[in-house]
Amino acid sequence: MTSQRTRDRLIERVREKGITDESVLKIMRATPRHIFLDEALSHRAYEDSSLPIGFQQTLSQPYIVARMTELLLAAGPRERVLEVGTGSGYQTAILAQLVERVFSVERIRPLQEQARQRLRHLRLYNVHLRHADGGMGWPQRGPFDGILSAAAPEVVPQELLDQLAIGGRLVIPVGKKGVQQHLCVYDKTEDGINEQKIEPVLFVPLVSGVVA
Length: 212
Ligand code: SAH
Description:
The protein is α/β, with parallel strands linked by helices. It has 6 helices and 9 strands, in the order H-H-E-E-H-E-H-E-H-E-E-H-E-E-E. Helix 1 packs antiparallel against helix 2. The chain binds S-adenosyl-L-homocysteine (SAH).
């Protein structure tokens, strides 16, 4: 159930849904997803669905991970990337193999600790983790040429836009609770911020404060 054939089938499904970036598909094919889940759920790791990781949080759906990564990379290679919401660490692992350095912030300490072990197991040493409220970004490590958020704010935090470098791109789900969220892309140019609404999505909310 965690065989290469099962993984290949997932990648084909993701491709059928419209993902075209071969570098993203290649890394997803080579990265195990089952190690980011509790053993009781690992048999579902290669379904194209989001799955629970405890603390009312979810491991994002593979299609969505692929879509967000593809969008982040579409405007050119990214060196310094901030991720808001490490969660299981799966998206972090994908990013770490496609950009130079990943800075990832998580507000729930036990999730962060688990993610740290998994990333170490995969020998992904270009990832820096921080236990903090990612809605504030990570100002000491910015500016970033890419920011990706796995949690949805009602309104895009100004801090994240401020920490984007010129030419940088923010990929983030946005929307009020109970109202349709949209995956959005914000590009920072010399002249200001350009916004694009990409597609409807369903994400856990961005919550302020931290959980020890
Ligand atoms: N990409 C992750 C998604 C996890 S769900 C994965 O595939 O596993 C979103 C994560 O965002 C949760 O772990 C949640 O705790 C975290 N989160 C929510 N609000 C946050 C905030 N303000 N700062 C940091 N992390 C936050």
